[in-house]
Amino acid sequence: MRIVLLGAPGSGKGTQGKQLVDQYHTPQISTGDLLRAAVAADTPLGRMAKAAMDAGQLVSDEIVLGMIRERLAEPDAQRGFILDGFPRNLSQAETLDGVLHDLGQPVDLALLIDVDFDVLMQRLTGRRTCESCGAVYNVYSNPPKFDDRCDLCGGNLRRRADDNEETIGNRLRVYEAQTTPVIEYYRRQRRLRTVQGVGGISDILQAIRRILDPLSRGEAVPGAEPATGDAKPAVAKRAGSRAPAKRAGGGAPAAAKKKSAAEKAEKKKVIPKKKAAAKKPAAKKKAVKKKVAQKTAKKKVMPKKKAAVKKKVAAKKVARKKTTAKKKTALGKIAAKGRSAPGKGVRRRIPRRPK
Ligand SMILES: [Zn+2]
Questions:
Q1: Which of 89, 198, 227, 259 could form a disulfide with 117 if both were Cys (CB 3.0 to 4.6 A apart)?
Q2: Which one of 2, 71, 123, 127 is the catalytic residue?
């Protein structure tokens, strides 16, 4: 049973993930946990991830996929996995499929725990935590008996600093804008199943089990979802096990309208500025670099320069590792030479050409 778990912050995805681990004895592979573990264990990928984070950059998909690949090679993952926290955007979903296909461990299903935007806002902004004992309340769904007082110990209830509406709203909209294409991607391939993430934890688990139980027995899963806007599916629908055909057509049309309006506004606003700006240029640059490299390689001018650049990078890495004491040793000199190498390479190359 190989599952990708999808759900917004506040959807209860983490809680359900844990239940599923107990239920199916399948490991939950959270990319957040993988990252932390790799950094703590100081693995090669962990060091690369740490370097990126220390530089204030996002950890690249390559690194994360490398970690996933390593994790999937472990014995317990041979039975299957519940992947959590990845993919978060379309490009990651596509790359992941490639990697898993190569490993012979393709994703069976993407399971979406769907919760209305307004409900997510309530869940996330209503959170209160006891300063003394850590008990968690929600002023909307699980309020304390007395305002701002813990039922258990009488301690003060606080809201986290980043639990304000604006921050949370932005976080949710960014999440949604990025993951909607992922959801559509799996839906198009008829690998998406949706459960409504409302009601009690055990109710939601039941709905999930109606989908995953057959899968865990190696049976076909009922109810492939039609692509958005398609006709109703031929397979009989099981109560509560699937979302309505149209995603926004749930129980709250008003909320849905609000949601899509907010989405549109947000796509214009937040995405291009924040995430896209942070991520895409780097990826594009890489792509451009690659193309340039390929072109020049064809002319047979490039190999030397490439090698020089590689040396330079390698030397730099080594140089960075060595700490202050050894800064000016031979390695440092190599690094310094490496830095001037590309220039030399060019000069050397020019007289050769006429031959
Ligand atoms: Zn308390």
A1: 259
A2: 127
